[in-house]
Amino acid sequence: MAYRETEKMRQRKAAVRQKITDCTYRCVAEGGFRNAKVTRIARMADVATGTIYRHFDSKEDLFAEIFRQATQHEVNKVADALAPPGDARERLERALRRFAERALEGPVMAWSLIAEPVDPKVEKERLTYRKAYADLFEQAIREGIEEGCIPDQNTRQSSTCLVGAVSESLVGPLSPSQTGQTTTDKTDNDPLVDTIIRFCIQGLTGTRR
Fold this sequence. Notes:
The protein has helices spanning 7-31, 38-45, 49-55, 59-82, 88-105, 107-114, 120-147, 155-174, 176-179, 186-205. By secondary structure, it is mainly α. It has 2 domains: 1-56, Arc Repressor Mutant, subunit A (Orthogonal Bundle), CATH 1.10.10; 60-205, Tetracycline Repressor, domain 2 (Orthogonal Bundle), CATH 1.10.357.10. Residues 14-74 form the HTH tetR-type domain.
């Protein structure tokens, strides 16, 4: 008679998998992917290291899953900032500000998502989510062109430029050598965020903010 997995067993396996991902997420948030060792994750999750590999084919697959979860959360925050009423330029400014401020408020995780050297599987996810940000910005730029608050331009190229400008501007400030891997005072970041937003909006519209 073939073995049939019971619902109780499926729920138990799902709970173990969730505990592993939760602990991995915490490790990355505290010290980046490089400090998320499988032995430490197993210890935190109170499972054997072999259990981790029963749920994930490799460490890279586990890290890719964490990257997807963390970045999708941030993409959703940017989407939320673009959703409220207002002209497209205002909404883009709000979304770009949300992107930058959230990164600077959680520099360790932000560095891990934006710039930390990672395995190819995780890097592939990084490229996917950079496109997700660009897609959101592109739609807003198109709406701005239709509204007349943003001049006509190549929306795809402009959207990828926005993602690149914000991300590159944050690499230095988020670097562990600069942050000491601690959270920072929001007021200390205001001038940097204002400069990033000013540069992006001026490049997008051709006018000073």
